[in-house]
Amino acid sequence: MYVSLKGIIGADAEISAEPKPIKQPIENVFGFVDDSLNHSSLTVKRNETLSDILESYHLLNADVSEIAKRSKSIFDVRKLRAGKKYHLYTDDDSLNTVKYFVYEKDKISFIVYDLCDSINIYSGKKEVKIVKETKSAVIKSSLYDALLENNASIELAIEMSKIFAWQIDFYHLQKGDNFKVIYEEEFVDNQMVGIGKVLGAYFKHYNKEYFAIPFVQDSVYQYFDENGNSLRKEFLKTPMEFVRISSRYSLRRLHPILKVYRPHTGVDYAAPTGTPIRTVGDGEVIAASYSKSNGNYIKIRHNSVYTTAYLHMSRFGKGIKRRTTVKQGQVIGYVGSTGLATGPHLHFMFYMNGNYVNPLKVEIPPSHPVKEELRNNFEQQKKMVMDELRKIDQLNANEDNRPV
């Protein structure tokens, strides 16, 4: 007996089958499809090169050279760093042919070497999720310890020390000082990878209150106090007037006397012997001494973040010695050629958080107050930040009063 389906579901009904959706290939975090490839995740070993990494995958030296050549405008393969993570994606066959090599520059940025057909090299960044967070604490010993006790990153301590560098001496915090801060935490793959912007902060130091209100002026994200004054002071552009740069900051320079390549962690200003040298900012002299390589030199700590050094002086300025307080523009010494120097010049160095930085490229926002035409916008921003800072106290009070 024949039974028609139309007889069951209706003569006018159309018989159709829902097509199964086609499964779309999913790209990995680096932007390519890897579901048919083998994946190895490793770290760069000490003194390991790109050739060392790829030689076991049967790439010819000529191929590696071509990869390095094409990569140069995006990333110099000679700058692979020991301990950094890299990924190899290979064919699932006996040849184990490399299809992709990925080098992670940091927790967010990466370089992809696509070797599938021709060589294609590009940089990228992982998706970063921003989460707003708040912290508050009372200082018992140091800002660092206070943040650790409150499960905060040490990066937050560095950011706060930069913001309040001119107002607070973080080397001499006292027990009972306290702070509140609103900031961003950056997450990649559900793991915190760093600190974003500080969105507002308060610090009470020696019973004096300091506020940091973020505000964009002249396209620069910077911080002001509650009265609209910049929290930063400017540094002089150079430690001498009418000077000529004779040697720039470099991580590899042939030393004119020692005849070896070594980092040149400062800027040389050529000038006649006896030319006055001035400090680029207010601070305290933490060294005024002589050494075989530096000659007569002075080191000035401007605050808990910034320090500068002045080398090869012929002599020190009047009254300059260790623990002397100096003012911006004050003459602290005179150009000479003491120590390892081929001629009269000043070797000027700039430190940020104890690390060398290029004095010509260090980014220090301007210290101008909020412009009058932007006052209303600033006042709105200030109110929002102040309200959020007050809420931190309320949250803490609620937590303290929770039933046990």
Outline the structure in words.
It is a single chain. This protein is α+β, with helices and mostly antiparallel strands and 404 residues long. The protein has three domains: 37-125, Nuclear Transport Factor 2, Chain: A, CATH 3.10.450.350; 129-224, Roll (Nuclear Transport Factor 2, Chain: A); 244-357, Distorted Sandwich (Glucose Permease (Domain IIA)), CATH 2.70.70.10. Helix content is 16%, strand content 37%. The protein is built from six helices and 22 strands. The strands form four sheets. Strands 11, 14, 15, 16, 17, 18, 19, 20, 21 and 22 form a ten-stranded antiparallel beta sheet that branches. A five-stranded antiparallel beta sheet has the order 1-2-3-4-5, covered by helices on one side. Strands 6-7-8-9-10 form a five-stranded antiparallel beta sheet, sandwiched between helices. The longest helix has 26 residues, at 375-400. It is globular and about 80 Å long. The N and C termini lie far apart (78 Å). The model is unreliable at 1-9 and 400-404 (pLDDT under 50).
Summarize the model shown.
With 404 residues, this protein is α+β, with helices and mostly antiparallel strands.
Features:
disordered C terminus; 3 domains; ten-stranded antiparallel β-sheet; globular; five-stranded antiparallel β-sheet; Glucose Permease (Domain IIA); Nuclear Transport Factor 2, Chain: A; alpha+beta; 404 residues
